[in-house]
Amino acid sequence: MTAANIQVSETPLVLYTLRRADDALILGHRLSEWCGHAPMLEEDMALANMGLDLLGQARELYSYAAKVEGKDNDEDKFAYLRDVRQYRNLLLLEQPNGDFARTMVRQFFYAAFADLYWRAMMRSTDATLAAIAAKSEKESAYHVRHCSEWIIRLGDGTEESHRRTQAAIDELWAFTGEMFSVDDSERGLIDTGIAIDPATLRPQWLKTVSGVVREATLVLPDNNWMQQGGRSGRHSEHLGHLLSELQSMQRTFPGATW
Amino acid sequence: MYTQALNTSDGDDRHIEDAARATQFQARIDADERIEPNDWMPAAYRKTLTRQISQHAHSEIVGMLPEGNWITRAPSLRRKAALLAKVQDECGHGLYLYAAAETLGSSREELVDAMLAGKAKYSSIFNYPTLTWADIGTIGWLVDGAAIMNQIPLCRCSYGPYARAMIRVCKEESFHQRQGFEIMLTLCRGTDEQKAMAQDALNRWWWPVLMMFGPPDQVSQHSDTSTKWKIKRFSNDELRQKFVDATVPQAQFLGLTIPDPDMKQNANGNWEYSAIDWDEFKQVLAGNGPCNRDRLAARRKAHEDGAWVREAAMAYAEKRRQRSALQAAE
Fold this sequence. Notes:
The complex is a heterodimer of chains A (about 260) and B (about 325). With about 260 residues, chain A is mainly alpha-helical. Chain A contains eleven helices and no strands. Chain A has helices spanning about 10-30, 40-70, 75-80, 90-95, 100-120, 125-155, 160-170, 185-190, 200-215, 240-245, 250. Chain B has a two-stranded antiparallel ribbon.
């Protein structure tokens, strides 16, 4: 056994599943970084809860990707033995935690999308994905609620919390477009009803997000330039550092069972 | 998780306000009745329990740090999820315990401030570093194991809210303890390198874990009143001995060597251990353990960095209150 990267046969369904698994793992990992350091104990609990939901989603999706691929890979090989260029998560989710406002805005942008996405995916013609979607939708609905409440409290709280939350929105906005884009690999799955077209969800997402942001007395940026690249492995510099920590044990002790 | 037998009580009967009430109170304790928050209680009983429960709560919260140190590096997704869930449980224990302490009349903020100011203690064990993954197994196996020994008797503590919190906490702790043992078992059945990692962790944690039970009985000053009040039911040395006797066969099963070459089993079947370095214990309690400064600094940083969030939540709640008052007036 070596600690070298695994090879993945990225058929459209494997790639599709890995992308969602990577989303869940990377965001779950980011949330787990808060553990023990949150602004209040209740929030330590809530951030860990959301992190655990996402880790659970990641594990199911990786296991399904392994099954579909039908090679020697498993959830841990996918998580621990792929490098930055092989990771397929959205750029938004690998962005560093920053302050609590930034973590909440990141979570809110994603959860408001994931909730709609998984709800629509419950109609997937792929029974496993539909089942994962049903579970993930319930979890995401809670994440949206929790984050919305915080965005409103922070936006309409003090001058400082307003300023920090507006800054987080301004910084993260350019990463939201990637959630709705589709490439050729995914187009085929959409045509056969295995996946849904995320672009169709954008109006509803924007409505939810704008509503909360307005209630929070905050504003969405005018700038509509959107960063892309995560889905094809062109990441920000942040992901490499996250992975070097996440993967350190598996890379140091190749082939060991833990 | 981890109450430490710090044996803090202020059992000075001079302060008992009312001799007749005190007699009645003691009679209730002797009859194994539970004391509830609104019941009369001696000031010293209240003070002793506030201190013990809040120290216990602080230990849970500070205890999140050494294990939290490995959440981002856990070696498999299953271990990562289990560790995150475990540390989250500890946070939950901290919350129930602060709530139990609040029933005695001190707010969580006051109690936390005392800890952050370095005035309140937490378990000495969390002032040691987690250097390898095997430390996570060892903490579950031994630290949680020792905590359970201390806490099972507390499920029958005379103060109702504390006893009830302990029942719930102990259930989760015993799950953590099994999980820790299972991590150790996996390491001990793994590669030579993994087994060496497990042995090294045991070598480093063994003595600090024995210290968790507190000073030896002959120098322990406070046990008498705590025992009379049925807060404490076993002495430090009794609990320590129970723990050692339960742990030795587990270490043997794992194929690990307890770092005490002179340890031997006596005719009663008890394992006699060598002298504990109480100077080390005193140093750690005095703030000179390997991680005391880091632990407090991490808690202070979380508290300070989070201040604006807590202020925002309060400001928002106040705005809402004013708005609904205005609406009601219209």
